[in-house]
Structure to design on (499 residues):
């Protein structure tokens, strides 16, 4: 067989990525050879594959959930915003253009061909391909050029399941309205709904589920309960606004407090996931100098716009706070774009076109931006531990002194590296946090038995369990095997199905 399914959502962050990952794990556990696919992704969280190509981090994670090697063909088009109007276009793992929102439309026709060929390739190799949509399929202003939602479903004749986030409120209106706004040929492929993040008595929900079925002629295929701890490689910063279990955690001597600067163009903030999984570590995102004051470690993370985000850091008074604490011997870590900011100077004729800019001057380094993007999976060591990472950047950092630290350097309590993903190395993470705690004067001791890879696998299994226990898997399998039923009614806006 060569089955497929498209998981769409009523909004961004409705749960499409999590449901897709859960379906991939459920199918893999059934012995099905399955792969994820997202035709077009707009995200600043990306990853480098084993063969040196760039792809969305969420699709990389979904491939891991499916138990297959992540490949750029699983995310053929990746858009990386550098401002409110301009994005870098990455096609099959390589950057091909910088375009504004209107110019991007000129590329849609050939990108449609890339998407079709990519999906066809996967469907020839795998028994099932679980596709993920983007945003909402009811973004009718974008429908004409759509290659990721109903445009993809029509192209590949995929049945569509729409996920709605009940925690936001208005889930019934969102699910009904999503279908009602679609043209009849698109509606014909929408075969059911999934309600996500439900907490409470399901008996109270049942009348609404039944009424939605009567109004649309489509079943609710399952209700997924609210589940903490499923923060899986998010695609956008909406995930940073979600409540986390440590949000109000009290600080004690045995707690390590980490403040991560929330840049406007923050990228690869998944670097923080392994830190947040460490018992006794509290990770919070910071947007003002006061948010940094009491932290034991301040992290300047990656960014898609180093120069403009450095200007933002200065405008908000946060740069002065970072410099002050560094000079007091209080820990600061810069990763990729954050590492670049710590240098003495930055020469950027490429990303921002600004030219020469003064850095924070906390590390003896200089940065020159080049037109070619560096993509790699480097390996090294620090603290006597082996370290695997990945790098995605245009800025080349030349280190001119200090104590070696991975590919960067350390001066006092300031560390800098271009490598992402280093904290996922358990031994290195523990040694680094132990050093930070001693430097900050904390009593924190890293847990010796926390393995990030094992935690990630446990999360994949938890997602598979959610699918098995709370979705009508027989109905889902029929959709994958046979496609959308041929008798689905048209839902006119504001009314019952035209039967």
């Amino acid at each position: 067989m060569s089955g497929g399914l498209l998981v769409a959502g009523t909004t961004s962050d409705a749960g499409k990525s999590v449901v897709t990952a859960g379906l991939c794990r459920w199918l893999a556990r059934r012995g099905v050879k399955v792969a994820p696919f997202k035709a077009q992704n707009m995200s600043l969280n990306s990853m480098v594959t084993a063969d040196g190509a760039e792809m969305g981090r969420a699709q990389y994670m979904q491939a891991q959930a499916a138990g297959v090697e992540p490949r750029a063909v699983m995310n053929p088009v990746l858009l990386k915003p550098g401002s409110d109007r301009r994005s870098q276009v990455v096609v099959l793992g390589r950057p091909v253009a910088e375009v504004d929102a209107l110019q991007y439309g000129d590329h849609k026709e050939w990108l449609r061909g890339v998407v079709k060929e990519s999906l066809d390739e996967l469907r020839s190799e795998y028994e099932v391909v679980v596709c993920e949509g983007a945003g909402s399929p009811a973004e009718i202003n974008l429908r004409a050029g759509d290659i990721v939602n109903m445009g993809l479903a029509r192209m590949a004749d995929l049945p569509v399941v729409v996920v709605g986030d009940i925690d936001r409120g208005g889930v019934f209106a969102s699910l009904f309205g999503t279908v009602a706004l679609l043209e009849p040929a698109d509606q014909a492929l929408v075969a059911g709904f999934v309600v996500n993040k439900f907490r409470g008595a399901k008996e109270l929900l049942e009348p609404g589920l039944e009424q939605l079925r009567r109004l649309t002629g489509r079943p609710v295929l399952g209700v997924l309960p609210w589940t903490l701890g499923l923060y899986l490689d998010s695609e956008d910063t909406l995930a940073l606004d979600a409540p986390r279990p440590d949000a109000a955690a009290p600080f004690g001597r045995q707690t390590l407090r980490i403040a991560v600067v929330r840049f406007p163009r923050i990228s690869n903030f998944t670097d923080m996931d392994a830190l947040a999984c460490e018992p006794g570590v509290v990770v919070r995102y910071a947007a003002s100098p006061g948010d940094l004051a009491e932290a034991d470690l301040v992290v300047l993370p990656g960014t898609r716009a180093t120069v403009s985000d450095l200007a933002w850091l200065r405008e908000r008074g946060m740069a002065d706070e970072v410099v002050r604490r560094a000079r007091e011997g209080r820990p600061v870590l810069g990763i990729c774009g954050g590492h670049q900011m710590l240098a003495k100077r930055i020469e950027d004729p490429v990303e921002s076109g600004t030219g020469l800019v003064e850095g924070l001057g906390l590390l003896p380094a200089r940065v020159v931006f080049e037109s070619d993007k560096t993509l790699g999976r480097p390996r090294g060591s620090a603290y006597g531990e082996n370290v695997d990472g990945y790098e995605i950047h245009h800025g080349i950092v030349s280190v001119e002194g200090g104590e070696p630290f991975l590919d960067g350097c350390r001066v006092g309590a300031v560390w800098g590296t271009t490598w992402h993903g280093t904290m996922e190395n358990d031994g290195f993470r523990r040694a680094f946090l132990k050093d930070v705690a001693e430097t900050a004067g904390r009593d924190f001791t890293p847990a010796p038995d926390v393995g990030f890879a094992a935690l990630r696998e446990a999360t994949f299994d938890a997602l598979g369990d959610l699918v098995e226990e709370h979705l009508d898997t027989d109905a889902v399998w029929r959709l994958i095997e046979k496609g959308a039923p041929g008798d689905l009614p048209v839902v006119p806006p504001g009314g019952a199905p035209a039967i």
